[in-house]
Amino acid sequence: MSSEQFFTREQTYASRVYALIKPLSAKDEAERKAYGSLAHKLPILIRTAGLAQALAFVAARNKEGTPQRRLLAHLEEVLQQTNLLAQGANLVERSRTASFEEYMRLTEGSLQALLWFKRFAQAELKVEAGTEEEGR
């Protein structure tokens, strides 16, 4: 018998996202709120405007090093770890240049991963939906 373990995609998303969010619980309240607020809002923005436009909007409105940019980097990392995005690829750039089929996979994967970001933002960062902190 093989001792190799298999995990569902949801289990993989949950464990990867948890590992990224848990250290943020030690950050100050403003940083947790900014990150958690975007975790709640980004899926809605993706469904409304599309993946490429939503990611470009968040990237353009937030400087490097902000909690919002950290969420984009974390999302990119999770998609790379689940093989939906090539290692070293930039999610914002790839969403603009991907074929239709790949774009749909990236959108679906992003939404699935963001569900876990949202859940752990509530559980670990104590940020509920409707928290008004965008870090504009």
From TrEMBL:
GO biological process, one term: defense response to virus
GO cellular component entries: cytoplasm
Subcellular locations according to the entry: Cytoplasm
Record InterPro entries: AF1862-like_dom_sf, CRISPR-assoc_prot_Cmr5
Keywords tagged on the record: Antiviral defense, Cytoplasm
Pfam families: Cas_Cmr5
Entry annotated with the keyword Magnesium: no
UniProt keyword Metal-binding present: no
Domain of life according to the entry: Bacteria
Protein family (similarity comment): Belongs to the CRISPR system Cmr5 family.
Full protein name: CRISPR type III-B/RAMP module-associated protein Cmr5
Organism: Candidatus Viridilinea halotolerans
Primary gene name: cmr5
